[in-house]
Amino acid sequence: MQGKQKAVRVRVSGTVQGVSYRVWTRGEAMRLGLTGWVRNERDGSVNALLAGADAAVAAMIEHLWQGPRGALVSKVEIEEATDDAPADFRIIA
Q1: pTM score, two decimals?
Q2: Based on C-alpha coordinates, what's the Rg of the chain?
């Protein structure tokens, strides 16, 4: 990856479980060259760690507002992350 690197934690709320949001997120993140993870939360939201080039992270955040067919995103909360990202992008439990 080239350019400035960035890592953020993102919580996506709305209709984001039961619509393959995690699988879609993994595919988009990999397409953009990001590393990190995505998981469902008990409150019905989806939480993710996104790490990579600044521009790729920004593009992914924009994509998260759309999501896969069937998703209805009401909120995307972002905070800077200090977590170490894995070398790939994973769906975790």
Answers
A1: 0.93
A2: 12
